[in-house]
Amino acid sequence: MNAHTFEKDLFRGKVVLVTGAAGGIGAGIAKAFADLGAQLVVQDIDFEKLQRGANRLVRDGHRVTAIGGDLSIRGTADTVFDQALLAHDRIDILINNAGRSWGITTDAISPERTDELMELNFNSVLWLSKRFIAEARKHGEGGSIIQVSSTAGVTGFERRAVYCATKFGVVGLTKVLALDHARENIRVNALLPHVVETEMFRTVASPQDAANWRTGIPMGRFAQVEDVANLAIFLCSPAASYLTGGLYPVDGGAMAGSFGGN
Ligand SMILES: NC(=O)c1ccc[n+]([C@@H]2O[C@H](COP(=O)([O-])OP(=O)(O)OC[C@H]3O[C@@H](n4cnc5c(N)ncnc54)[C@H](O)[C@@H]3O)[C@@H](O)[C@H]2O)c1
Question: Which pTM does this prediction carry?
Answer without folding.
Answer: 0.97
